[in-house]
Amino acid sequence: MSFTADIKEELSRVAPTCSHCERATLSALVRIEGSLFLQGGGRMHLEIDTDTPQAARIMVKLLHSSYDLRTDLTMRRNVLHKTPNYLINVPMQEGLESALRDLGILGDAGIGQGIDPHLVEKRCCAAAYLRGAFLGCGFVSSPKGDFHFEMPIASVEQAEGIVALMAEAGIEAKTMQRRNNTIVYLKSGTAISNFLAFTGAHNAALAMENERVIKSVRNDVNRRVNAELANQQKTTDASVEQVIAIHDVVDHFGMEGLPPALQEFIRLRVQHPDATLRELGEYANPPLSKSAVYHRVRRIERLAARAHGDSSSGEQK
User: In this structure, are residues 193 and 169 in contact, taking their beta carbons and an 8 Å threshold?
Assistant: First the structure.
């Protein structure tokens, strides 16, 4: 089962907090997955098409228990994806129009746009509405990969309403257009975890947080290892340059012609080619500070430059 399917299964089992929460959930589901067919003489019927079994189960249950509406459920198989598809038909009957008005689908001016404010006045009802929206069209990628959350919404007003509900809960969502849909999306792992926790998918939110911690630790370790490797490479490169300079200085000036301090540095560097300047200072007798060792390195480099200059003058002669 995918991570999205796990989330939807968990959300489908969240108990309503108040008596209006189920109405908010059903409204979101009908809005996102339903199609209302208007006929002459005020007749109408509703068709709801979903690939999510949890969403189908909730809609059939609430249409029966909350509004006593008759429904016909047909299970089909999606030819392209080889997955079940559920068609819920709500035929014209007494109580259908009043139910649609109660759900904010129908208004005095016809089919309502956006989210009816009366459905989401309470925080728990706002969470229930977002829960229904995700059950209808939500997707979250596996937290083991890149964090990604999206809900494709056909109505721009509906998408903007969902973004506003998230904002009131402290969750910053964004939108973009993709073909005929407005995509509500989250990219931050924190935002996705907050959405899951707000809508009641606490186990999924905990799984997200665990993966976020693992990724954070792994990234921190990788940064430290990379930094350490880079420092080691710098130390190695510097050591090689110092050894080359030492060979030039000894060849040109001779070991006995060098001051004792430089002779000691040369012996230490040859004995410990991979050591840092700080470590070379600790090997000295008496121990030297890093700045003192660096000062000797600079003297060797200047002598090596002189040796190269003398060699160039000799060649010109």
Answer: no
